[in-house]
Here is the input.
Amino acid sequence: MSRNPGNSHLEIIDAALLGAKIVKDASEVAPVLAPLKGTIGIVITILETIRGVKTNKEDWATLGKRLSTQIKDMQDNLSRCPTPHSTSLLLAVDSYEQKLQHVLTRVHLASGRGLAKRLFRQRVDRDEVVELNQNVEIYWEEFIRDISIQTHETVYRVEKDVNKVERDVEKVEKSVNRVQYGVNQVEKDVHRIKHGVNRVEMSMDAMGDESHISKLTPVPGAIGEDHEICLYGTRTAVLDPIRQWANDPTTPQVRWLTDVAGAGKSTIAKHLSIEWKDQGRLAGCFFFDKNRPDATNKTGFCDTIAAQLANNQPQLRSLITQGIKEIGPILSVCLFEDKLQKLVIRPMETVSLVLVVDALDECIGKDRIIIVRHLLSSLSQVPQLKVLITSRPERDIAQLLDRYRSRTESLHDVELKSNRDDIAAFVKYKMTDLVQSSELTNEEVDQLARRVNCLFILASTACRVVEDSPNPHVAVEELLNPNQDLLHDINTLYSTILTEACRADQGRQSSTSKTREELLRVLKAILAASTPLTVSMIDSLLGITNTRRLLGFLSSVLNVRADEVVLILHPTFREFLEDRAAAGLFYVDMKEAHALMAKGCLETMKRELCFNICRLESSFTFNKDVPDLDERISKYISRELQYGCISWLDHIVKSRTTSRDTEVDPALLCITRGGYPLFWIEVVSALGKIPKAIKGLQDVGGCHLEKGLKAAINDIKRFLIAFSTPISESIPHIYISAIPFTPKQSYIRQAAESLFPNTMSIVIGCPENWPEPPRQWIGHTSNVNSIAFSSDGRRIASGSDDNTIRLWDAETGQGLGEPLRGHEGAVRSVAFSPDGRCVASGSYDKTIRLWDVETGQALGEPLRGHEGVVHSVAFSPDGRLIASGANDKTIRLWDAETGQALGEPLRGHERAVWSVAFAPDGRSIASGSWDTTIRLWDAETGQALGEPLRAHEDAVNSVAFSPDGRLIASGSEDNTIRLWDAEKGQALGEPLRGHERAVYSVAFSPDGRCVASGSEDKTIRLNNTIRLWDAETSQALGEPLRGHERAFYSVAFSPDGRRIASGSRDKTIRLWDAETGQALGERLRGHGGGVSSVAFSPDGRLIASGSYDNTIRLWDAEKGQALGEPLRGHESVVSSVAFAPDGRCVASGSWDTTIRLWDAETGQALGEPLRDHEDAVNAVAFSSDGRCVASGSDDNTIRLWDVETGQALGEPLRGHEDVVSSVAFSPNGRCVASGSEDNTARMWDAETGQALGEPLRGHKRTFRSVAFSPDGRSVVSGSEDKTIRLWDAETGQALGEPLRGHERAVNSVAFSPDGCYIASGSEDGIIRLWNAESGQPLAQTSRDITHLIICVPTPSDSHLFASTSHQKPNLHNNPSHILRTVSGPHFAPPYFHHCSLLENGWVFSPEGLLYWVPPHNRHGLQHSHLLTIPTNHPLRATWIDFTRFRCGTSWIQCRK
Here is the structure.
């Protein structure tokens, strides 16, 4: 009985799988086989993939058997090797594994392509499988060779070393006597040299330490320079217990000094800091201060402490330097935990020091908790360290520090005699000069001291009021007046101070109201400022000149430092001004304050911005390479302009209400006109704040603005996003690179074009307008595995198999900056932190990485701990934790701030964990696994909660919690979605059915009423679907959402629930309307499927294209624009199109077995379809007189048709034994040539239908294409055997040898109009040109080409047309130009040589930067002879005119 070949194939694969899995199991338990784990995993995946392939089974089985044998041989070899394995062996195994990863990728592609072809009755090319087998064998031979070479090299080195040692021993023996003689002298010299070296080394070490420590960026003013110390002899009741605590090693390491605002905590902290520094015991101090934005967060904390530690404790400098070296170039973005450990904690491990942290309550909420937590968790490493923390008694701080509270001291308790005495001493000290000058009496001073209620800030402020008064006696009387009770509380005193300031200026004004108005403007500026302002900055921003005089009346509440920076003396004054009830007439409305500052910033920008503000001489250099850029910034950009350019956006956002601002909007409108936006961008680029500017523009764009103003802001935002790379890297390229590529009708281009005429001109490739948000967001070069919305809905993150993460503007679909690179494998999952500042990513490289959203920089080192691919990552709702699920069957929890793994892995699943999700309250985690179960875990303890949730029949790919935490949704390989009760762990109702393939992703809408699911299921057109489900009824909502060409890997709802984002295996991202299910964004005006055939009209004005989307499209050949709607009528793939010789008619052949004729002008079908073929039509061609059409079909025949009647002419032309793939008429119309999959071509008499002579034989595989020469004497053919052949059309004899050069099947061939050239297009993605007479290759043009044809409008104007299977045709104009482009890069401006277009878009020459090219223009610029249609396609044609191009030292001439 014969054996079933299909079963034989499966038996071989199954045996190979079994063998590989046995080796895998062995590698899990045998350390000697551990290096094989990754390799075996890849082999098993390959075997599982090829097991389901239905074509070329024997070849696939051979591949599987070969791989299994190689793995078994590796197991045997490694088993005999001692451990630990040598580095060379491990490198060889790793190299082999990487090569197998490439094989796996090709297996996926080959098996997928084979399936698609089978569905469309096309044959799989065996070459792919054979080539894979050959490659695997080559990789194995290379592995064996590597091992052998490394072994021989090792043996050779050892032998060589042994011989050398033997010779050296002989020499040493001969030299011993001579050496001995000089030993005594040498010892003396060595002693002297050592002494000198030690001194030099100490000096060098000190210099080295200093250079590294200088890299730290401590926060200016954070060491408390502006704070006073305690008066001698006072506060002893507070200071002494703290001193005793600091000296007693048995007391707790932390002491928390807490009291109300103004009690004197900072004075205590400053006093003790100086005291401990003098004693050599101070590690460092950090004084948080709301006056200084950079002293209100954790960013500069570690640098500030480390810099002081190095200065205060010189013996620790080398340890701090070591930490800086370990952190390396990421010092500025390093995780807080890493910095604290390496720069602060570790250097102090063996010393007894005190660390002071003051005013912790003035640090922003999240950061202060992070600082305290990490300090507390590090105490065990530094048992001799003492930490003094001061703050107000705020709840979140108290929860962490209450057990460390200093309960023996109360700084403001009036009942304590020590407090009363201290305040009295302080007041008397402050009033000493006034008493000695007889301006005050001792009695008045005593009364003042008794009335200030032991509150230090009240006493201090009262003393300043008296000191600043022109009549101290009167001032004291007013303060002590019982009717006014000014010293009842600090707010009453503040109100009095401001009132008196207005009165004091009354002599200069007509009324106190005007003074109050001026005073309030200054106070608004001080309160709203994002960074402290100087006196002159306030004058400039407010347009006044009297700031200094006004501040002179407020010296009791404001401090003007020596550098003229204005600071609020105490936070209670700010709190008073912002309290309407307390401040009364002096109330500061912060929205009004920000509006005032916004206007001031805009007016300053209008006044001071100008072209080339930094006076840069050349455009050849990056900003970072301008040696004196910092000095130029200081010299040419005033402090107020720097402030205005950075802060105006933030002020506008904080000032906006729901109505138009009549003060700010006119100034804003002015600054968005003319060259101002570009001049502003110059300053932002110089200051390195482009990401901040983009975010600010996004925020302002969301505010209530007049329509035209909003449009201008959004246009500037799009300009910054599109050109963030050149703009942020080199200021001149705002004009040289960005403006020329900006859409012609954009607001910023219209404003700038007349001002900057001398730039390069983008003749072809510059769009008219900013593109509408595209339906497909193109940027990744491989599968999009994961997508996530930021919490504000303005950004989307995506992770891809191309190893990158990309950030996108959710409104426009524009990519934000360059891809985030760092992973060494595919990115499987991405997630935004709740605050939107960070993205986490999980990867095939077994790591998790954290990224700064604003800068795109990786934060710290990768998070390592998993032993397999990380499939899923998720942030906890509070952003403190990250959960990850991996191939190693575990879930891990990580500290999001430090990157440290928390506890042991969560174990329980029996197969890979593919999805993890936090409950909305953060207390539990759900995980979905390929073991078909969902598990719930306690997020705090890591314990499993209850039994696994079982109901799915196959792997669980995705899990998600409902917003209220009561439900869990899961998507599975069993094609269903299930809903679960999160508390009981029970399945709710029946599975949600509707998908026909695996469900990869599920997501709840924000209101919890809807579930979205993304699947691998396909329709007849190979489209994939998203489905929406009612979470309550489990019913499908409407029709599936269709649009992606391949499987949906990820879906996510926007935070407002109005949009759904999807990521797909087709490498794109799409947005959908969650209510209607409609795709959002502009459809790319092209085909919806691959392009199968193209043709020119005889006059060269039109192009027709046929597509896998069953339609024909007509295009304007010059502009590349689609003409009208697609021509619809065919029910399957349009395989071939052809124009009639008069250009008035188009014929199309389809896999639906019909030919159709169309009016080329109207697009209307002409008559009924031509039916007679019994199978797919592959080719159509018109006769030279246009009266006849020939067609070739899968039914192995050629048919001739009367164009006028649509009737078949005679019987089918029979003779081929397989599919007819190509037909062509001779120029005189008397002969038809046909090419077939029977490996022959035939010639036929067009009138009689008789075969002419014998078949043309010579190709070893299918004839894919045939074409006649213009004179009809020759025929050219292209074949699956990768060659082109020429034939004598009369005799059928082959002319010369095959033309070789292509690496894959040749799909299309054509003669040039004069018959001198032959063009060929191949599956290797290359067009080649050949000399038709000699057969010699002439040129190689663009890649990604599969079909081409040459048409003849006129003898002098030929067109080479090529199409691809990527939904866009490419048009090549003038073959002679193609030849010219080979000689040198056509993107080089005149007089510049050896130019290169880099991957990041920069065009370089030896002189330096020339210009930058946007991503969508790079392909077209490199292949400028191609016209890609539609012209808005990402591979758009690009042609640059450099006539007016100015760069280098002449770049400033770009301005008129």
